[in-house]
Amino acid sequence: RFFDHWLKEEQNGVMDEPALTWFRRQYTEPEPFPDRLNGAWHSEANYPPPDRQEQTFYLGEQTLTAAKTDASTADAYIHRPTIGGRGSLCYGGGAPPNGLSRDLRPDEALSLTYTSAPLQAPLDVLGFPQVVLYMQSSAPVAHAVVRLTDVAPSGVSSQVSIGILNLAHRNGHANPQPLTPGQVYQVPISLKATGYRFLPGHRIRVSIASAYWPVIWPSPYVAMHKLHRGGHTPSRLVLPTLPTDRPVAEPPTFKTSPPRLIDVGEYLYEPPVWQIIEDVIKQSVTVKLYGGDTVILPHGVTLFNSEKLEMTAYHQQPAYARMYNEVIYKLRNHGYETEIRATGSIHSTVDAFHIDIQLLVHLNGNRFFEKSWLESIPRQLL
């Protein structure tokens, strides 16, 4: 309707509606493919709302508190390139095998964590949470992966938002600069926008790690990182908060879904795969994904497509991660069969990404077209 108004000049009243209509989530037991999320709809006449404020929590001795501490200290953690398997495979909601975050406690056990006391009253957040961290690394390239979570009274840790920064990009993405080992940097990191209510009795947690496998490629160096906090290095979380007495709004009117393919044919799913395999001997973590389906249309037309992905990272050798991807399309139409198969692999070293891509097309079982690409690309502080 917004585009209809501005591009088609339709007077549909969309500009008279609230500037923002948003869904305020609240704690839902984390699972990769939830049927529903708890929360309520709200609307804002203006954005940002004039009554929005900022609430700051300072990182302490595994704590988040409103009060600063006078003494400056540091928490050390090693670069673990295989952390991240409890997280989501995409930022939005997905269909199998691309699921949402699960209980994050196994990842948090290998991260720095800072947790508030149980809340005495609900706390509503709308906007982009931010952390300001004072970071130090022994390596010229490092990532900071910051998760904001809601810790239920049961101890389950559910993701609210996440922010990721390659610290070589701390001054912007146009001109990356390596870290000077041992130097302390003030690093602001914006997290993904969220609308969320922390309930009474729940706790707010910030966890900090150096990897998010397999979502981001690991930085290449074995490294020790330090987070400085307190005193002249006041690492902190800043939440954009709202009063909790907002009226509940009517849900937006969404367009109806298009007709299902089953109404005009048949739709067959391939069993999806989402596997996380830890190899104790090799000290590696491999993620395997697979999804596919077949569409059978009237008049004998059949379309099959599938995608397979396999990625491996090594705890002791962060530079040498690798991935393999295969995509297949098959079209059967009145006695003809066309198959397109694209495969690609990437393996990295300290200095470069080595890429091998192959494209193969068959027509009725005979090779019709083939092409391959082989290239090495410098890492350039990645």
Quick synopsis:
With 382 residues, the protein is mostly beta strands. 26% of the residues are buried.
Can you characterise this structure?
The structure is a single chain. The protein is an all-beta fold and 382 residues long. The chain folds into two domains: 241 residues, Jelly Rolls; 118 residues. Helix content is 3%, strand content 48%. The strands form three sheets. Strands 1, 2, 3, 4, 5, 7, 8, 11, 12, 14 and 15 form an eleven-stranded mixed β-sheet that branches. Strands 16, 17, 18, 19, 20, 21, 22 and 23 form an eight-stranded antiparallel β-sheet that branches. A four-stranded antiparallel β-sheet has the order 6-13-9-10, with no helix packed on it. A hairpin with a 4-residue loop joins β17 and β18. The longest helix has 6 residues. The protein is globular and about 75 Å long. The mean pLDDT is 95.
List the helices and strands and how they pair.
Layout: H1 2-7, E1 20-26, E2 39-44, E3 53-59, E4 64-65, E5 73-78, H2 105-108, E6 112-115, E7 123-127, E8 130-137, E9 143-151, E10 157-166, E11 185-190, E12 194-198, E13 203-209, E14 224-229, E15 236-242, E16 266-269, E17 273-279, E18 284-297, E19 301-314, E20 322-333, E21 336-348, E22 352-363, E23 366-378
Parallel strand pairs: 1-12
Antiparallel strand pairs: 1-2, 3-4, 3-15, 5-14, 6-13, 7-12, 7-15, 8-11, 8-14, 8-15, 9-10, 9-13, 16-18, 17-18, 18-19, 19-20, 20-21, 21-22, 22-23
Oligomer: single chain
CATH architecture descriptor of the largest domain:
Sandwich
Estimated radius of gyration: 24 Å
Q: What's the SSE pattern?
A: HEEEEEHEEEEEEEEEEEEEEEEEE
Bulk shape: globular
Look at the structure and give the mean pLDDT: 95
DSSP helical segment count: 2
End-to-end Cα distance: 41 Å
CATH topology of the largest domain: Jelly Rolls
Output the structural class.
mainly beta
As a percent range, the share of helical residues equals under 10%
User: In CATH's first tier, which class of the largest domain applies?
Assistant: Mainly Beta
Query: How many beta-strand segments?
Result: 23
Residue windows where pLDDT falls under 50 for at least 5 positions: none
Domains counted in the coordinates: how many? 2
The CATH superfamily of the largest domain turns out to be Galactose-binding domain-like
What share of the residues does DSSP label as strand, in percent?
over 45%
Major sheet characteristics: 11 strands, mixed
